[in-house]
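We treat protein structure as text, and this decision shapes the records that our systems exchange. We quote a single record here, exactly as it is kept in our systems:
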Amino acid sequence: MKVRVDGATLHVEVDGDEDNPALLMWPPGRCTVRTWDHLVPRLADRFRVVRIDIRGCGESSPAADPATQYTFEQYAKDACAVLDHLGIERCHVWSQSWGSRPAMVFCAFHPDRVMSAALYAANTDQPDMEAQQEGTKRAAELRREAGIRSEPPPTGFMQHRDPEAAGLATQALRKFDLSTVVSRLTMPVLIGTGSHDPNLVSSRVIAATAPNAKLAVLDNVGHNGILEHPELALSTFLGFHDSLGT
């Protein structure tokens, strides 16, 4: 479906029974709702899964003025508007990598709408792309040595109607100091970060600072657990919800 918010047209996909608890999913940077395609069928029997292409990315169109719309505050506002459109008052959250940044802002600014948050590869610092690539490569080598087979990523997970807008959309991370909102994450929080992800340094700080957070280190995983080792990413997420009684 398409939802109009503040001049943008957001592409939204919903799976699962509407009586299930809602799960809002935030994909990695420059990735689309397709990123979660391999996991949604295994979540939809338990959750009402909501996926949004952020404005400018995937099948979503930006507003006419690019100067002010690409911010984490706007993405959080967009998510609230989509939830309102769907009649969802509260939701669980699952995010990955860059997506954990707007997810943190959404959770901090709208805690009344969030029941729990699983923030994978969470980081409040600027990204170290080279270290992320090196860590991901090393983790892949270790998984091969352990006999863990890698699956190809979902088709279309980085395809955008407007590639230029998609590039602008991810620059929001340079406009917001995420360290200022960590203490406002009062809901149950799972930080799931790869053992070979440089973000693990910041993830440890987030887990120690957020009032109700715990850290899960994903063994032999680099920066993008849901794509690198989806079985481990999913089992860790579901174990977290088992502990909550979701």
